[in-house]
Amino acid sequence: MHLYFLRLYLLGLALLALSSSPAYAQSGALATLRGTITDSLSGQPLPGTGLQLTGPAGTTGTATDALGHFRLGGLAAGTYTLQATGLGYGTRRQTLTLATGETQTLALALPAVALNLREVTVAQPRDPNQSLAAITRIDQVLRPVNSAQDLLPLVPGLVIAQHAGGGKAEQIFIRGFDVDHGTDFNVSIDGLPVNMVSHAHGQGYADMHFVIPETVDALRVYKGPYTARFGDFATAGAGEFSTKTSLESSLAKVEIGRFDTRRAVALLDLLPAGKHLLSNQTESAYLASEYTFTNAYFDSPQHFRRFNGLGKYTGILSDRTSLMMLGSHFTSRWDASGQVPERAVRDNRISRFGSIDDTEGGSTSRTNATAVLTTALPHDAVLRQQAYYSRYDFNLYSNFTFFLENPDQGDQIRQTDGRNIYGYTGTYERASQLGSRALRSTFGLGTRIDDVDLALRNSVKRQVTGTIVSGRVFEQNLNAYLDETLMLTEQLTLNAALRTDYFVFRYRDAQDTETSGRATKARISPKLNLYYDLTPNTQLFVRSGLGFHSNDARAVVVNRADSLPALPRAIGYEVGSTFKPLPALVVNAAFWALHLQDELVYVGDGGFTESAGRTRRFGADVALRYQLSRVLFADVDLNYAHGRLVGAPKGENYIPLAPSFTTVGGLTLKQPRGLSASLRYRHLNTRPANEANTVQAQGYFLFDAVASYAVGRFVLGATAENLLNVEWNQAQFDTLSRLPGEPAEGVSELHYTPGTPFFVKGSVSVLF
């Protein structure tokens, strides 16, 4: 099937070539309109702002680049109306007159406005693959974010589960995938990769806890393997988070809640209006910090504590150059109760919130430094270059089988991961005209190096008793892509792209040279997408693409027979629409399918890679956002997926833990001052926990509520989770384990981490 997609991609390139033929060329004595779009409050440029120009020859459009610049060329002389629209900003219209051969320059400032769905546009002229842009921007305004754990669920259709006292990365479910901790969903923040390759606990491990939620400004969501900018792990999709470029005001916030929960946050603006650091143009800089402590709801206190610190500078150095610099540090430590077997609770050995081994837990830390230099070049091109470095440490004590392997001292293990990450990404983007048609070309080049010390050891009550496996991983990814977006007509847009990834895997085992080695692998991933603006409020799309997720380096170097592929292929395609059937109703719907060559999971608890074989999924996503009144909003996500193992006997071909139905939604009262509130629900269905569906992970339906009251410089808030105090399970697995006194062969049944009971916390914020 991948040859079929290659043919489609080549057809897309052929269409691009045909559109550049002389038949579409125009005479040279035409006018050009240039300009810059900025935020009226901060003065920072607004990339991706959509522009429509209506005049004698009809309507044409474009979008601002990374520096907030735009260009519209090939215009006949006459009077025009320019409309600038950005999500979260007021629409700006301006009438202008162009003379023959004239180049006119405009500078527009857009004001931030209260959310109004009547003004939301469905098309994204700069990045058509971001078809969920309108939905995610609405969600950022409406959906409450109370902790780093609430960030990933901002992705429509994504559900999480936690199973280590809040210290580990969450388990992710999306589009019929149990993504584990990130194997099939690519996550980044400000261009920094979050997923960890060849991680001690699981391939693609994505820990977002180093992000302070109050600093997050935007989220871009890309479902499926259709966007060339993403390579490894972007099979089910990708989420790009970005932090604020500036603060409207400084903030101090304190939260207190049940289970000894305490949290403090501070955001400090370092460059008030009129102050400068590196240039005399628009600049901003701020510091942010967060401290969290909780004992959680388990019988054994969790002693969970986390500290986050962030500093960020964003500045316009000249008319053609901007610079962003960011540094952050995160550290966390916790005790955990682990997953419990159903029989231990049923037989009253422990309570529902008890533990078999209460010495589980761990610590982790991450330090980041990154800089982004964006430069405007001749011929309406922009060069964006980013360099980054991360130091990461991870130390986890777990016990999933209890006394199965070691009946006397227990089966506790210790996983450690200490790594340095070095990376560079560069993109050259150019907007041009092919005759009368707008063409946006992007060439990307990047590399990432992970230098990692890994170990899996036996332990008893956090005292190491022996080494199972330890060694050093060196893994490098070199990648390049070419992405072309052409407006074939005023309504039809073609996006064709080609990405290539080259990997170098090296592993040196500290004990066994037979498991050491080196390997190289490459993968080419074509993409082809079509977008049709049926009306200004209806966009149709057809998308297709190939992607992959990488295997753990330790498995790649010893797998010389290629029985476990290093870069298993993913083939995806979908058809859908973003539309507004009513002025205040935004809907995104997609019917999709995704085929995986091999569904691989690195089992860090055992030190091996597990293969499920080929899998096939198809499903439907529906997201609705409706404005009932000026201040009242409703939202709902409905996500269905059907997935099966390919080649397995019927009845034994279920994909363990893959959800078939999830839904979240709620009602939100949103006001700039005074009272705001939100009542929300979330549901994950019961699903098979093994291939034969003889054990099932239990579903749940929960209600949460958030309220705040803003008066003057103060904001009072309250949050309630699990309003009905439902007994529910977070992470759930069909696990073979042994308790004291049980047969040596153990018992296989459902093990789970109990979900949060009724929980309430209050907060006080001061703006200054």
TrEMBL record:
Gene3D superfamilies given in the database record: Carboxypeptidase-like, regulatory domain, TonB-dependent receptor, beta-barrel domain, TonB-dependent receptor, plug domain
Recorded topology in the membrane: Multi-pass membrane protein
Signal peptide interval: 1-25
Location of this chain's protein in the cell: Cell outer membrane
Entry keywords, A to Z: Cell outer membrane, Membrane, Receptor, Signal, TonB box, Transmembrane, Transmembrane beta strand, Transport
Domain annotation TonB-dependent receptor-like beta-barrel: ranges: 330-723
Domain of life: Bacteria
PROSITE patterns per record: TONB_DEPENDENT_REC_3
InterPro entries membership: Beta-barrel_TonB (IPR000531), Beta-barrel_TonB_sf (IPR036942), CarboxyPept-like_regulatory (IPR008969), Plug_dom (IPR012910), Plug_dom_sf (IPR037066), TonB-dep_rcpt-like (IPR039426)
Sequence ranges assigned to domain TonB-dependent receptor plug in this UniProt record: 126-238
PANTHER family: BLL6948 PROTEIN, TONB-DEPENDENT OUTER MEMBRANE RECEPTOR
Family, per entry: Belongs to the TonB-dependent receptor family.
Name this protein carries in UniProt: TonB-dependent receptor
Organism encoding this protein: Hymenobacter duratus
